[in-house]
Design brief:
Layout: E1 8-11, H1 17-26, E2 28-31, H2 37-44, E3 49-52, H3 60-69, E4 74-77, H4 87-92, E5 96-99, H5 105-120, H6 123-131, H7 135-140, E6 152-156, H8 160-173, E7 176-180, E8 193-194, H9 198-204, E9 207-210, H10 224-227, E10 235-238, H11 247-255, E11 261-264, E12 284-286, H12 295-302, H13 304-312
Parallel strand pairs: 1-2, 1-3, 3-4, 4-5, 6-7, 6-9, 7-8, 9-10, 10-11, 11-12
Helix pairs in contact: 1-13, 2-3, 5-8
Bound molecules: nicotinamide-adenine-dinucleotide.
């Protein structure tokens, strides 16, 4: 086939060698390194497909440029959160958006459990102190946490990841699970008690864990007002999106002992600048947005290329994304 007849596929963030090879077999691949809005708008005007991950924003302006170009058929997001893509604008322009909804469920759930235990059992704090010779002093401190079987996990957003975390905690550790979700959640294969509001979860949980998408409703949902409901002994885990939690109010609540600890994988912005409030907050375990980064998780995210190719070849994609009215 002549090159000009091949679909032109923009890869705007790093993908694996094997995913790249699959795309190269299906078309002409143009690799970009996290282009800005202007560069991306210029590129999509002459492309048939676009692959992104977390950090490239496919804005209404980029979609408008693609629409004018008249070629772009599909935007693939390796991963689940589509807050970096204007899905409604894409749908209006007749451009299909695809993602990999379940790729990172288990990786994120695993890291969430790790953060819970790291915060409550002070693993990250103890490690450097043991190395500094404080072994005996640390052993003489009174324990401050109950075992997980005597605690209540509060899940905000009982979707794929919320469920996977709940399963691990309830079935593995015997933790009671309560949750709030904006949508009616049907049958769950483990015991979990729905709450009428997020506030009811904040007030009754020992561990609050956020698994919501970033939407206009969830942006900043955990700030001063939400934190005022938390038990002082409770901890907050955020492996969803940085802007869901307001950093300054959380840092203040940690400093003032209004909550006992936090485990944070996601920031606003990323990477967090040196003066980001959570970098100096006490009892806070931080990871660099790596919750999804298991070997299996990354491989499954790269499989978004298969849906991109399906759309280019006129087949039904496995995971089309519908516009979210709350986005
Ligand atoms: P999902 O769509 O299966 O679940 C999200 C749940 O949140 C749904 O049940 C939805 O009804 C609920 N929800 C939406 N708005 C709400 C609100 N205002 N209040 C309460 N509940 C609300 O998604 P998922 O696969 O479980 O992923 C959840 C999020 O985790 C993703 O959108 C993404 O932002 C984040 N994520 C982060 C990483 C990471 O590396 N840290 C990796 C994967 C996903």
């Amino acid at each position: 086939m002549a090159d000009e007849a091949k679909p032109r596929i923009i890869v705007a963030e790093r993908i694996s060698e094997s995913a790249l090879a699959r795309l190269q077999a299906a078309g002409e691949v143009v690799m970009l390194d996290r282009p800005d809005e202007e560069q991306l708008a210029a590129e999509v005007a002459q492309a048939d497909a676009l692959a992104v991950r977390t950090y490239v924003h496919v804005t209404a302006r980029v979609i408008e440029a693609a629409k004018k170009g008249g070629r772009l058929k599909v935007i693939g997001r390796g991963g689940v959160g589509v807050d970096n893509i204007d899905v409604a604008a894409a749908a209006a322009a007749g451009i299909v958006v695809v993602n990999t909804p379940a790729a990172s469920t288990h990786a994120v759930a695993d890291l969430t459990v790790g953060l819970i235990i790291a915060v409550q059992r002070k693993i990250a704090e103890f490690d450097p102190r043991v190395r500094r010779g404080e072994f005996a002093t640390l052993r003489s401190e009174a324990p401050q946490t109950l075992e997980l079987r005597h605690q209540t996990l509060g899940v905000i957003g009982m979707g794929r990841i919320g469920r996977a975390v709940s399963e691990r905690l309830h079935l593995g550790f015997g933790t009671r699970v309560i949750y709030y979700d904006i949508r009616e959640i049907g049958y769950l294969p483990f015991a979990a008690e729905a709450q009428p509001s997020a506030e009811a979860v904040y007030a009754n949980a020992d561990i609050v864990t956020c698994h919501v998408p970033l939407t206009r409703l969830t942006r900043g949902m955990i700030g001063d007002a939400a934190l005022s409901h938390f038990k002082p002994s409770a901890i907050l885990i955020n492996t969803s999106r940085g802007p869901v939690v307001q950093a300054e109010p959380l840092a203040r609540a940690l400093r003032e002992g209004r909550i006992a600890g936090a485990g944070i994988d996601v920031f606003d912005p990323e990477p967090p600048p040196p003066d980001h409030p959570l970098l100096s907050a006490p009892n806070c375990v931080l990871t660099p947005h790596v919750a999804a980064r298991s070997k299996e998780g990354i491989a499954a995210m790269n499989d978004v290329v298969d849906d991109i190719i399906a759309v280019l070849q006129g087949r039904e994609p496995m995971y089309p994304v519908e516009p979210d009215p709350d986005a």
